[in-house]
Write a structure and sequence with these properties.
6% strand; globular; 53% helix; Glutathione S-transferase Yfyf (Class Pi), Chain A, domain 2
């Protein structure tokens, strides 16, 4: 076990955490019977993954899980005004990230073309405006919050696919990216075993097998 973090909620994970300094372990499902066993045990409220088993609870729904852990780690704001701003930006970051998750389930070239033509032009200017207005290298306040981590995940993926040129017209987002990836826990996670990689053929096959797609 290590103090590490993760934000991309994998549909085959039995446990999942957000960028939060908690000890955790990952357990992936590879067979349909293991998924059905969790349903029979009553651990999956809506019969879907991911599942986080923590504090005697069985948490599903990735947004709810992230907020639960965010509150435990003090990442959800210092007051109601910050909390609602963080929550809105958190949801925006998830919307920004969602299209890239289709890689492997649809032709990669098609997915990337749509991300480049639709998602990047829509969201990069909006998040640039927020980051520039705050000016600290974070989206809200002067320290890391759940909003930052929600935005960092798509940016990590887009840099992996498109390179750092995505920041050419967005200096505040480049500052944001450099600030977040320099945070000790984030840096350790990115170098560690919990960081999930691009969807590959095996992963897609496993998802289809476990979820009977």
């Amino acid at each position: 076990m290590e103090n590490n973090l993760a934000l991309k909620f994998n549909p085959l994970k039995r446990s999942c955490v957000t960028f939060c300094p908690l000890q955790f372990s990952d357990e992936f499902l590879y067979e349909r019977k293991d998924f059905l066993k969790l349903i029979d045990e009553g651990k999956l409220l809506f019969n879907q993954l991911p599942l986080l088993e923590i504090d005697g609870k069985n948490l599903i729904q990735s947004g709810s899980t992230a907020r639960y852990l965010g509150r435990k780690a003090g990442l959800c704001g210092k007051n109601e005004d910050e909390a609602v701003q963080i929550d809105m930006l958190f949801e925006g970051g998830r919307d920004f990230f969602t299209p890239i998750l289709a890689v492997g389930f649809r032709p990669e070239a098609d997915v990337l073309a749509e991300v480049k033509s639709k998602s990047l032009p829509k969201y990069m200017p909006l998040f640039e405006k927020v980051a520039a207005a705050n000016g600290t290298g974070y989206l809200v306040g002067s320290s890391m919050t759940l909003a930052d981590l929600s935005l960092l995940e798509p940016l990590l993926a887009f840099v992996e696919y498109f390179g750092s040129d995505i920041f050419n017209d967005y200096p505040a987002l480049k500052k944001f990216y450099d600030t977040l990836t320099s945070v000790d826990t984030v840096s350790a996670f990115l170098k560690g075993p919990h960081r999930q990689r691009k969807n590959d053929e095996k992963y897609v096959k496993d998802v289809k097998t476990v979820l009977a797609w």
